[in-house]
Amino acid sequence: MAVADTRPRKALDAVELDPRREPIVVVDDLHIVYRVYGAGGKGNAASAFSRVLRRKHRPTMTEVHAIKGLSFVAYRGEAVGIIGTNGSGKSTLLKAIAGLLPPHRGGVYTDGQPSLLGVNAALMKDLTGERNIVLGCLAMGMSPAETRAKYKEIVDFAGLKEGFIQYPMRTYSSGMGARLRFAIAAAKTHDVLLIDEALATGDAKFKVKSKRRIEELRKEAGAVFLVAHQLDVVKETCDRVIWIDEGRMHMDGDPEEVIAAYVETTGK
Ligand SMILES: Nc1ncnc2c1ncn2[C@@H]1O[C@H](COP(=O)(O)OP(=O)(O)OP(=O)(O)O)[C@@H](O)[C@H]1O
């Protein structure tokens, strides 16, 4: 899948390519800019009316430059951890790789279909866990027969308390929701699996289980990207870590080294 590239290629030239491995995600001088309308102005009816009278269609617009020229190549079989302080651009990068945010400049190229598994992944709160499994599997492109075949495996993996699978998801704790989301996403082999904080709320036993499943997914599929604030999860799960600071690449390499440098700099 290719996402708009509107400028001469330059930044990726600086990235070293490993000719022995197969690239699966290429991020080339990526810039992501959010447009925020109405920031700074009063968001009430009077100011909207005043805009109408002044024939100004839109409230003031400000831009947030969240990713500022990021370039790297991820290879088949890699598990890449993305770390950085709050607001550094981790979730934005995942969304851009998933194709959910258009690049302002530069591009993201993936070999195969990326799937984003986030804390806010679109499960329906008013539907039962059971219905969400079916909908989730169908939404991931599985056939009804495949969905039926995988159903029990998903329920077992999520390991919810007895009977909860028949309850609406709004009755689940955040940890239970995260477990079910992960279990649904992990039921399928993904070309590129993007995980945003989904493992944060699981307990220790579930983390071990998910780590094992991520390893399997890496073998079966393309690459796994993981955003997590818990550095131990990243260290245990990933074989490469990218540290983003204010939307820019700060460090990229061995998990132990990058995390040690991050802890030393940020004190986290
Ligand atoms: N929908 C949005 N509209 C405008 N600005 C946004 C939006 N989402 C994120 N931002 C801004 O983009 C920047 C990067 O945010 P992002 O959520 O990617 O950071 P993050 O590293 O994932 O943060 P955290 O660790 O807190 O989850 C921040 O300055 C944030 O305020």
TrEMBL record:
* GO cellular component term of the entry, any: membrane
GO MF, one annotated term: ATP hydrolysis activity
Read off the PROSITE patterns from this record: ABC_TRANSPORTER_2
Residues annotated as domain ABC transporter: 47-265
Which keywords has UniProt assigned to this entry? Answer: ATP-binding, Nucleotide-binding, Transport
Q: Which Pfam families match?
A: ABC_tran
| Superkingdom to which the source organism belongs | Bacteria
Q: Which SUPFAM superfamilies match?
A: P-loop containing nucleoside triphosphate hydrolases
Q: Which PANTHER family match?
A: TEICHOIC ACIDS EXPORT ATP-BINDING PROTEIN TAGH
Similarity remark: Belongs to the ABC transporter superfamily.
Report what the protein is called: ABC transporter ATP-binding protein
Q: Which organism is it from?
A: Actinomadura syzygii
Taxonomic lineage of the native organism:
Bacteria, Bacillati, Actinomycetota, Actinomycetes, Streptosporangiales
